[in-house]
Amino acid sequence: MARIALDAMGGDHAPAAPVAGALLALQELDAAHSIQLVGREEVVRAELDRQLAGEFASMRDAAAARISIVHADDVIEMTDKPSVAIRGKPKSSMVVGLRLQADGNAEAFVSAGNTGAQMAASTFILRLHDGITRPAISTLFPTVKNPLVVLDSGANVDCSAQELVSFARLGSVYAADILGRTNPSVGLLSIGEEAEKGNAVVKEAHQLLRAAEGINFQGNIEGRDLPMAASERGPIDVVVCDGFVGNVLLKFYESVAPMIFGILGKHGVTREQISGALSHLDYASVGGAPLLGVKGVSIICHGKSSPKAIKNAVLVAMKTVESNMSAHIGQALSRAAKSEDVS
Amino acid sequence: MARIALDAMGGDHAPAAPVAGALLALQELDAAHSIQLVGREEVVRAELDRQLAGEFASMRDAAAARISIVHADDVIEMTDKPSVAIRGKPKSSMVVGLRLQADGNAEAFVSAGNTGAQMAASTFILRLHDGITRPAISTLFPTVKNPLVVLDSGANVDCSAQELVSFARLGSVYAADILGRTNPSVGLLSIGEEAEKGNAVVKEAHQLLRAAEGINFQGNIEGRDLPMAASERGPIDVVVCDGFVGNVLLKFYESVAPMIFGILGKHGVTREQISGALSHLDYASVGGAPLLGVKGVSIICHGKSSPKAIKNAVLVAMKTVESNMSAHIGQALSRAAKSEDVS
After folding, report:
1. Which CATH number, 1.10.357.140, 3.50.50.60, 3.40.718.10, 1.20.1260.10, labels domain A1-132+293-324+337-343?
2. Vertex A150, ends A147 and A152: CA angle to 5°?
3. What part of B 252-311 touches A (C-beta under 8 Å)?
4. If you count residue pairs, one on A and one on B, with CB atoms under 8 Å apart, how many are there?
5. For residue B279, what is the nearest residue in chain A, using CA coordinates?
6. pLDDT: is B280 or A105 the higher one?
7. What confidence score (pLDDT) does residue B281 get?
8. Given this chain, do its domains B1-132+293-324 and B136-284 carry the same CATH topology?
9. What secondary structure letter does DSSP report for A85?
10. Whole-prediction pTM value?
């Protein structure tokens, strides 16, 4: 049994998208699981009633049994600074939603709201595993084969070599627990295969990763290898980079496919053919990214999340809870600290 | 009248591709211009004779009048370290070809050989403009509109904020002289529109660029803006980033389009439709990138360059010579140094 707290006020399409996402998720989750919609009670209640009177009429009984509303007076806006989450708005849906977990009343939190605020509030309320200085966000990059775990994708812009090693550990547990990869292989993003290629931090990280225990390090991976999810040495599951590079790449990737489809449209390719290919590249099918390194489960969704994306984020939250990912991350970091003490 | 020295031994398909590229270029260049093929005389002569006896039979008279062979004993291999160019192989086609320019016997040098060696040899033989610490390589990114000038794309991995400002000056002159852009607009690649977003170097560069005279700075540009060649503030001609980010992006871009076309092929899109769109994204149509910051003209081609790519690189070389780009760069840097002295 797991209880998912969902920020009903977070995202560009709140509260409609989170409420619809919760109802869609309910259709796929086992009956033992429940969802708490966190937000201004009268607003959330009205939206839920509206949807249950319309599109989701068949869900009335299920919603009555498994969806509850947890009131939160305030809302963190997209334009608020991250620190607002902690100091300025203790009664916001984000803080109230995360506190449910800290108080033992929920097992996970999901939000499409202000990402910086969610990171700050998650770090403050859930706290970090030992050995982690800041949480990381991983993104799944579509490839010709399986999606690639890329982290950090924007939470940490100036990273030390040690932080890149932490990302390798966090990403490996994520790939194993959420994506089911066995002994995930890790590549270090650089500008050449050779250990001596890269900027100063990457060159140092290469040596640390090579010496690190418990990481299936496969050497450097280049930009050209990402769409193949493989370097010359073989398949790669996890790609490690600083959050500046990761964020630039992610945003570029999100926009280059639409550009190419636009060009193709001028060459007689039909909308149906494009949408077929687009489904392979659909970010909404992933839904949410667990904030890695916190003690608990905090799932970050894109601000533009559709009901389908929110639904998938709730399913990711469930998988994160059921696989016990957070505990596994704590164990991996603790083993790493011990092996460093010995050596 | 301009004389282009072309490295006949450089690139994966040498000497066939450079020789064919020279003959293709001759068909498009004014009769006053000539090409010097630099390499082992007997090898280059045999290849030239072979092509003039076959595919290029109609070019015999033109080749006799306007193509000469400059002998060079040695070849810099793709696996050689850059320093080899200067110390180890003074009789290589690359060093001999660049010396022609230093000695007043050629106006430009073009090579598809070892890029690191070409940078080192160009810096050593042609020397750098005052105010430049290392040369930069700019790449043209295809977009929905006009190509975007992105620099640095791999020559400088750890950059200072001042170097990013230099890139803005170099890229602006390149965009004006070679691409014909008027008052080129410059964007700083970052992870958000706001001045306070980015890593430490980028945040400092933002302030320097904002204060710099002679640069049409339009603020930050994000990864998602690149395919549009525009930030929220308007169109962008030049994007500035360090060579690590630039190289990762460039290689990713080169491989993501083929991936998408591969996916589309599975959805019934025909080879003809794809090749129509591919022509829009064809890197061979650009051909070569001038090494920016050297006193003279050194055009860098991809190692895989086809005859068409080499031909286009020779045309870029001609444009670089005729527009007087190197002198304009010197003037721009000198004006910048004066305005800094004043302020």
Report:
1. 3.40.718.10
2. 155
3. 252-264, 266-269, 273-274, 276-277, 280-281
4. 158
5. A263
6. A105
7. 65
8. yes
9. I
10. 0.90
Cα separation of B268 and B258, whole Å?
Answer: 15
Query: B1-132+293-324 has which fold?
Result: Isopropylmalate Dehydrogenase (3.40.718)
- Residue B238 phi, psi (nearest 5): -130, 130
Residue type, B12: D
What does the angle CA B60 – CA B62 – CA B67 come to, to the nearest 5 degrees? 95
Number of H helices, E strands in chain A: 11, 13
Answer whether A72's CB lies under 8 Å from A92's CB.
yes
To the nearest whole number, what is the mean pLDDT of chain B?
A: 92
Q: CA A249 to CA B256: how far, in whole Å? A: 11
pLDDT of residue B1: 82
User: Do A71 and A36 contact (CB within 8 A), yes or no?
Assistant: no
- Specify whether the CB–CB gap between A63 and A32 falls below 8 A: no
A77-128 tens-digit pLDDT: 988 988 887 788 999 999 999 999 999 999 999 999 999 999 999 999 999 9
Average of per-residue pLDDT values in chain A = 92
CB contact under 8 A, B245 and A247: no
3-state helix, strand, coil split of chain B in percent (to 5) is 50, 20, 35
Number of Cβ within 10 Å of residue B77's Cβ equals 13
- The answer for A 174-193 residues in CB contact with B (under 8 A) is 189-191
